[in-house]
TrEMBL record:
Domain of life: Bacteria
Alphabetical list of InterPro entries matching this protein: Dimeric_a/b-barrel (IPR011008)
Species for this entry: SAR86 cluster bacterium
Name of the molecule in the record: ABM domain-containing protein
Length: 120
């Protein structure tokens, strides 16, 4: 079963440095505020379990994901100064993932190809 869904999800996990959880959460709040202005963002937020953080985020397509990364790039850089990116996945249909492979190579993500499904 094929899909015509173009949604791309970015799935990062962070290990926050000792004593830096409050600082990381403050950066997360700033990223949420900046991201709320992006028309191509479907959902965005941070989840926590102790010193582990996950950003759950989805975009209309690859272009919207790249716009987002440009928009929050400075804040993400600050977050990465106080945390380690322990896992990074990108989910979406191959025609969209193809647009993300080169620009995101520096993050060493695992690309998971959406082969069937739907989105409302």
């Amino acid at each position: 079963m094929a899909t015509n869904d173009t949604c791309c999800s970015i799935v990062p996990y962070f290990k926050i440095a000792e004593g830096k959880i409050a600082e990381f959460k403050a950066l997360g709040d700033q990223m949420v505020k900046k991201t709320s202005t992006e028309s191509g963002c479907l959902y965005y937020g941070f989840c926590f379990d102790g010193d582990v953080a996950h950003c759950r985020e989805g975009y209309d397509n690859a272009e919207a994901a790249l716009i987002h990364l440009d928009n929050v790039g400075e804040l993400l850089g600050k977050a990465l100064e106080i945390s380690e990116l322990t896992r990074m996945e990108i989910h979406g249909p191959e025609q969209e993932l193809a647009k993300l492979r080169e620009p995101l190579t520096h993050l060493s993500p695992q690309f998971l190809v959406l082969e069937c499904g739907f989105r409302r």
